[in-house]
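This part of the workshop introduces the protein records we will be handling. As an example, a complete record with its sequence and its structure tokens follows.
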Amino acid sequence: MKNSLTAVIYLEPDQVSLRIIELPKGRVINDVRSGVLALGDGKIANYAQNMGTIVNNLEGFKQQLKDYQVTDVHFYGAIEDLAPIDARYVADQLEVRTGLKIQWLNNNQLMAKTMGCVVTHLAEFKTLSKHCLYLLTLGLDSMTLAFFHHGNFEKQWEIDLGGVKISRLVQRLRQTTTNPQEIIQDYISSKLEYIAPELKRKKKTVLLIQNAPVLSNHYIKQGEHLAKVPLEPLKQANREMGPEIYDQHPWAQSVTNEQERRLLMPNYLIIARTAYLVHPLNIYVTDISMMDGLVNGFADSQAQSQINTMIRTSADDIAQRYGVDAAHKDFVTKFACQFFDQLRPLHRLDNHARLLLEIASKVDDIGNFINQESHYRHSAYILESNPLIGLSDADNQIIAEVARYHSAESPSATQEHYRHMDDDIQLVVAKLAAILRLVDSLDDSRQQKISAIKLKLTNDNLLKIKATANDDLVLEKWSFSKKSQLFNYVFGVKPVLIERGGH
């Protein structure tokens, strides 16, 4: 493959950066960062107020792109706590002023990309995660804790413990108390304790800290990407800590600006409390960043496949957590994917839509945990409150809506909820829901009577479904007669179920 240059621009609430890489190896040609952007007093993402500074930096980046003759440019932004309508306004302003079109990424997408990079590019990761490893990623608005077992991702938690939020709380407390650390420790504990029952405390557990520039600058040597962090100071922080952290703690020597100074104590306490809960044998810090994760997607052809595996794992985890019938889930997932593959000329959707259908098939019944009556609605709002790692906001919405419409309600012009859905996803939701509902009817008894299925589209607009079964399909046929109507309505093709004996 001929070498070529690709550029990634990444906008965060506190800075904007540019990295130019040479493909296919991903060698870094140029790496530039802006100065610190002012965070908002209310929302952390302060892009509108920083627009002039951001545009000036982007114009400087464009000159460098011109100097290096780079035409393949990808512009990403961390949406953080920015409202969707505000994100559209900011994106439009940036495109008008710079000609660059931004793609907003949520925290789940950024985390998946970064974790994938840590797993594949941190040479020591395989050894560190041989038993149990927790990856703690610090953020401005929230923190994320991911769990790896025997090198494989298993689950993650996003927790409302952002460094900026805690820093602001510290400032408010200082107006009423001389030593707010004890209150902050209790506040952090209250946010972390709810996941404590799910955490595994093994003898050989490792805690790996990511997105902590003060730590990485202090401990990691030049040319390396990993360093060990002493345990004792963190144990001490859980017992007692005074205001001297600002001036006397070793980490303070690596603070480069006022914002890092404000985040030092909150992040220190978050790390200390997390360490107390997971009880690690050792703690390490890595300097692999969000930008590394974004760039990795272009340099590593397997990066998206790895993210897709994380998405599937997260879906299986939430299905298990809400008591989904595993055999029924596997049946529906298997045949939904088969229907999707064999009906491509009919639905004309891409492989990403196939992934969304697969995920929806795994989690469509989680609402039964609340109530079997109208379980599809319960499934939808559970999914809306538990977005899956690696997926965009639109992707998560599609999965929730497909779950909503997989059973009784139909996505039609007369359905108020469906009418208010974004035009961009309405048709995708309808097509995927029609396929899932059809497949779901084939195991209405939850006994997996069908072992094989053959599909045939006929010239007279029929879809013949020949099902090999080891038992009578009386209930399945009755359910099929009702649930197949949506497929006919969406695709203009009438499904016909033909039973074949399995003996």
